[in-house]
Amino acid sequence: MAVAVTLVRMKVAILRHSLTGQRGSMAASAGSVGVLLSAGTIYLAFLGGDWLSAAYAVWMLGWIIGPVFSGGGDETLRPEFFTLLGLPPHRLAAGLLVAAFVGVAPAISLLAMTGLVVLGVREGVGPALIAVPAMVLQLAVFVLLSRVAVAVLGIALRSRVGAVGAGLVNGVVLAFLGQGWVFAIALGQGDEIPAIVRYLPSGWGVLAVQGDHLALAAMAVLIALLLAAWAALLTRRAGAAQAPTRGRRPMRAATARDAVLAKELRTWTRDLVRTHQLTFALAYGVFFAAAPLVLGWTGMLPLAGPIFIVMAAAMASNVYGTDGTALWLSVMTPGASDVRGRQLAWLVAVAPVAVLLAVGLSAVNGGPWPMVVALTVALLGGGAGLVPLVSVYALVPGTDPQKRGGNPLRTSEDDGALTGLAYLMMVLVAATGVPAGVAAALWGWPGVAVGVLTGALCFWWFGALAERRLAAQGPELLHMMRTGRRPSGGAEGRAGSAFKLPDMPRFQRAVVLVCMSLGAIPLIPQGILAAVFVADGRLGHSWFLATHMQPGLRYPTAAAMIALGLAMYGTSMWITYKYKKRAARS
Amino acid sequence: MTAALEIAGLTKAFGEKVAVDHVDLAVPQGSFYGLVGQNGAGKTTTLSMAVGLLRPDGGSARIFGADVWGDPAGAKRLVGVLPDGLAMPERLTGREVLTYLGLLRGLDRGVVAERAEELLTVLELDGAEKTLVIEYSTGMRKKIGLATALLHAPRLLVLDEPFEAVDPVSAATIKTILRGFVAGGGSIVLSSHVMALVEQLCDHVAVIDRGKVAAAGPLVEVRGDATLEDRFVDLVGSASSGTKGLSWL
User: Fold this and answer.
1) Among A140, A333, A382, B61, who pairs with B68 as Cys (CB 3.0-4.6 Å)?
2) B1-78+155-238, superfamily in CATH?
3) What would the pLDDT profile of B40-62 be if each residue is shown by its tens digit?
4) Prediction ipTM score
């Protein structure tokens, strides 16, 4: 137990130092969202056991999948810190497990677990008492599943086959989660929870409270097994290096831009994390679009290409950050068109697959050709423009590749910012497809011309903006990478993330956060997608409001939604701008 | 004659801490200049500002008269830099790194290929033809860094701790290359905290202490009759430091 106590104290000390300033406020806002989700979960406990089991299934998936997208999960205490101590692996794993319970995410999950107590109290005194150990065991199951998943993935990412496989699995799981309604309908129980949810490990706590005491024992056994698995995986992790990737072809580039292109393409193929990301984006696009096939509907298939493009851009949103301090070479060679080379490399990596998907699957579905072609072209241009732009304006300092520990997913210490950046990128890239999508929906083929135009404009103009920022702020960005911290105040403050919120009163901050986080809903699904559905004649479509309206009101509803979304983004940007200017003046 | 590197009043503060405080240095053309100081004295910060990798709060740096911040393209063309502990394009092989950088520097493809071949052979990196830089040892990383600094035939080399973690055989090779560079009219600034090395290689030296220049000039003038190490301890530390033992050993 001494090991565990020491590790817990160490973690508390580190958290106390790191959860200050911007990261502290970010953790606080993430925490408040988590508390809301927990409250929702507890509310479900009043509806009944099956609802609670379903909610916990979602929590479990969050614990397993979350770390994949947030840079390897909680790594406050890295196993490598302790390799020289000669601790037996099971003691280290047990100690790390206890320490893993300290933190914002476990605290919030534990709050969500109090749903079990609510459920128990409704059933009687005995079940209420059972709920307490069930709560703790259930949380331990989640935390351990998360750790084992990260460890397995870490080992998978040492080989190309593993990286591709892991990307595939993650993409499929996430796509099917996003399309859950398809399967709910396919199973013919649209408003009923499938029985299998009850028997997943996430439902065992509920089972125990409902009187199946064997479930408690089952959880204990599962915990023991997971702990043993994790201890075994920890010994394999220490000292792990990236798998060497063979197959060298001589570099044939002859200009500076082509040299950057060649360097980037080699990095795309040799860095297994990037391989994993691209496979993930591909699997997500394909399976998301293919899920409605279960219902015999092929209409979404052609969108696999566009979805893949948006995901691939989101995965590359920190393309400068992941290279770490190698940025010094660009700083030392001004005018060497680094941005243009990276844009081309992203296109070469993404475009052929995207085009193949778009053409092939449109052929299967028999169209709609103008829409798919217009979206593909516009999004490719938008992505290629936004990837360097976002990554220099909102740079998240990365850990230098040669200094990363045994967790290859950990490309930065600031994992919250990485996740935020990926979401931001998704929204922005999707937005670059809007004009072409609307034009194609309204007029057909001319939409393709719009797509070509906006795509080319995004590529050229965003690229130029990124190049200018890199030339003007290169040393500041490099300093940020070097120290791993965003500069605060003084002359360096200018190089901080352009998306960092300035100081403003609490009410204004709340307005900005709400508008920014929710603006996408009216803009994209309720606005643009709904307009596309209306144009396509698909009415009465689940929760797309415009498709339920009277004929004359359909387009106006969608247009109003788009306007609302844009107004929300506009408001938040205007408020931010106002306070930024005020901060600059003082 | 214009100085190879002229630093005037360079200043940098990180938060409350002033890392470099109005440093003035003039590195004459053809000189082998050593910058010595304790860990954290401000050597790396000074050199980073001198070559344009870190923006100073005040002061200026000129490379053969070209202002590093006013005419970055002109100044950076003339200098080769080996920074300490910065990343490279990690997933390229040594030869690919050199090809990539040569092309970035605007060199002709054929020239790049020839120079890369020669650098890899001389620095004995040609045996690791299939190894990615990320798999290099610390010493190999220094050598490939030095190769990138030399590739575009600069007139000034700025090297931050070039001999750290380099084995004695490789160190001898590097010394030969650097001496040849100076003999051919080039100028070198290197930082180190190994006094013997600086004494052996350099003809000029500057002692940096707590962000300020404690002494600077030709080596013989700075060290006087003593060794550089004694003089250094005189300048920056109290004589008693280093005599405290550990209580439990």
Assistant:
1) B61
2) P-loop containing nucleotide triphosphate hydrolases (3.40.50.300)
3) 888 899 999 999 999 999 999 99
4) 0.89
